[in-house]
Amino acid sequence: MSLVITVFGCEEEQGPTPLEHNTTPPGIVSNVVVENLPGKVRLEYTLPDDDDLLYIVTRYTLENGTKMEVKASYYQNSMLLEGFTGLSEQEISIYAVNKSETESAPVMVTVAPLEAPIFTIFNSLETSADFGGVHIEADNPTEEDIALLVMQKNVEGDWEPLPTSIYTSAGEISKSIRGFEPVSQDFAFAVRDRWLNTTDTLFTEITPIFEMQMPREEMNPITLPNDAELIASHTEVRDLFNGGYLEWYDSYFTSRTIDVGNHLVTWDIGRQTKLSRLRIWQFSEPIGGQRLYYYLGAMRYFRIWGANELNDGDLSGWTLLGEYEVIKPSGLPYAQEDNNDLVAAQDGVDYEISIDKPAVRYLRIECIENWAGGQYMAVSEVEVYGNPDF
User: Can you give the residue ranges of the DUF5000 domain (predicted)?
Assistant: First the structure.
């Protein structure tokens, strides 16, 4: 018994072994065709005629020194190599490997990938002052996963990325980084991809625009003829901006009995203001011991309108300040939410208003569709930000 146990123990420690024990190298790939792409290379080739062929492997080194290895099974005759900057030619090595993990002689090929997408993104980069910070725009036509690094100098005087740097694959990047004092400051910007290739750096001096939260005590509810009917006597317009962020008695609800028509709410923010954003807390339904933020009357699609004079409620007399979609990070089916959804919603979400929109005094929110597929709305709180003196 001791002998058997010992033998089995040794076999377990050896780990995976090749499927076969053929030490004869397989043939090499042939007829290699190279397609140079932005930051990438596509290879097509003819497989060697070996019965025990298992896969093809290509090895290469990126310009930043990272060693790469890409494998493709014997069921296909092509592979994609990624991670190049496209600023130089590179030599790659292609091997055929059999089921004994025996490699063929290498086939050496020189490739010349086109300039990587990060450089196109960097060349489109535009920065400008925004309320409380910096606004950044760039084009990412191939929707690459990139980091748009926003940097300032640390106490040692070295440039370092801020935690608010942008990580995205959006085709059109339009983002504001906030939390800065309205004084002249130096910023630096660069684009990096997931292989840690980085562009040159754009240096600029920007003075963020002063931004403040509009005082709740200056706000007043307004009811126009086409505003939505409330759900019950316990809810009122003032609950939108009374400082309550969670409970039903501090939230605003429109009637569920009205399936079609305008679901609008109107209020006075106190003075004409150049708005920067609205931070909105959706009402979270307490279901099964958790709070669901993307449920029932929580808005999914909505619009924000503004005006300086009141009318009978006809929207033709109002300026559309923005149209928005609420994004559920997890993408889970309706009534299912995870911690990513909770984190994204529990502290409210900023819905930005373009700096080219006019200053307004009166605001309206129009719910287009809620998460239940209707139009009634359930909102816990709204904070309004901007600059009355802009």
Answer: 251-386
Same-fold call for 117-210 versus 213-387:
no
Contacts of 22 (CB under 8 A, 6+ apart): 52, 98, 99, 100, 102
CATH numeric code, 213-387: 2.60.120.260
CB 196 within 8 A of CB 145: no
> Which fold, 117-210?
Immunoglobulin-like (2.60.40)
Q: Where are the domains of the chain?
A: 17-111, 117-210, 213-387
Give φ, ψ of 99 to 5 degrees.
Answer: -70, -10
Give the tens place of pLDDT for each residue, 319-346: 999 999 999 999 999 999 999 999 999 9
Q: Is 17-111 a CATH 2.60.40.10 domain?
A: yes
pLDDT digits (tens, 9 = 90+) for 154-165: 999 999 999 999
Helix (H, G, I), strand (E, B) or coil at 100: coil
Over the Cα atoms of the chain, what is R_g? 29
* CA separation for the pair 234, 253 (Å, rounded): 9
Inter-CA distances, 226 with 229, 260, 303, Å: 9, 12, 15
Nearest residue to 264 via CA among 372, 385, 368: 368
Q: What is the spatial distance between Cα 233 and Cα 247, in angstroms, rounded to a whole number?
A: 16
